[in-house]
Write a structure and sequence with these properties.
Layout lengths: L1 E15 L3 E8 L3 E7 L18 E7 L4 E8 L9 H17 L7 H16 L3 H15 L21 E5 L3 E3 L8 E5 H9 L5 H18 L6 H15 L1
Parallel strand pairs: 3-5
Antiparallel strand pairs: 1-2, 1-4, 2-3, 4-5, 6-7, 6-8
């Protein structure tokens, strides 16, 4: 198979042998794709220095199976400048894509959402709100979107002024069901999340607990490396 130049983002890269790199990219047309960039560390490799995480590039590749060979790259897009804690948040978003997306499964709408998320992180928007909105849109795109508009135990519509208990495996319930998979949540939060309009600190906090529980299920219990990096960063920043 031969794929012509089209927009992609670099999600991850690592060295491969002496002169090459292995890349995980998010393609606007082909979803998550693994590439080998042969000889990219040689000075003679044109534009090799542009292969940076979170960089948007036009890429082309060829081959078969699950690992393709990069054959061309062009840059017609400005580089993003995401730094510090926000850069670690971008790494978290990248890791979610690598862990939850199947290879070669195209998600053009999710590609646009991902791009918007990176630009929002760069522009200084509320970091927690940006991440929560990305998480819910990712789950919806993959068919894992939770029930948010009605209580699963009664079937009644969620009311703004009422409190609920969100069951990770099912959704919001009116009746309390204690346990580690039951999260107290306000009706206002559920409705705001459904609209993608999280604004209040309390809604963002409650949504974070819900999203963390749902995503953990789909990750099969394996922790996220980016979350550990984020926690270590906060620890070091707090000790300075």
């Amino acid at each position: 198979m031969r794929v012509t130049l089209h927009p992609c983002y670099i999600l991850h890269q690592r060295d491969y042998r002496e002169t090459s790199k292995l890349l995980e990219v998010f393609s606007s047309e082909h979803g998550r794709v693994s590439l080998v960039a042969r000889g990219v560390k040689r000075k003679s490799f044109r534009n090799g220095h542009l292969l940076q995480i979170n960089r948007k590039l036009d890429l082309a590749w060829s081959g078969r199976g699950d690992l393709y060979t990069l054959i061309n790259l062009e840059s017609g897009y400005p580089a993003l400048e995401i730094q510090g804690r926000r850069l670690l948040s971008a790494f978290y978003v990248n890791e979610l894509l690598m862990r939850l997306l199947h290879r070669h499964d195209a998600h053009p709408q999710l590609f646009r959402i991902y791009e918007h998320t990176l630009h929002a992180l760069q522009s200084g928007e509320n970091e927690e709100r940006v991440l929560r909105c990305f998480e819910i849109e990712l789950l919806k795109e993959l068919g894992y979107g939770p029930v948010l508009d009605h209580a699963i135990d009664t079937g009644r519509k969620v009311e703004p002024g009422r409190d609920y208990h969100f069951q990770i495996n099912h959704g919001p319930m009116e009746a309390a069901k204690p346990g580690k998979d039951s999260i107290p949540v306000a009706g206002n939060t559920l409705l705001a999340l459904a609209r993608g309009e999280l604004e209040s600190p309390e809604a963002i906090r409650q949504t974070k607990r819900i999203m963390r529980g749902i995503i953990a299920q789909h990750l099969g219990g394996k922790p996220l490396a980016s979350r550990k990096m984020y926690q270590e960063y906060l620890h070091l920043a707090g000790s300075e």
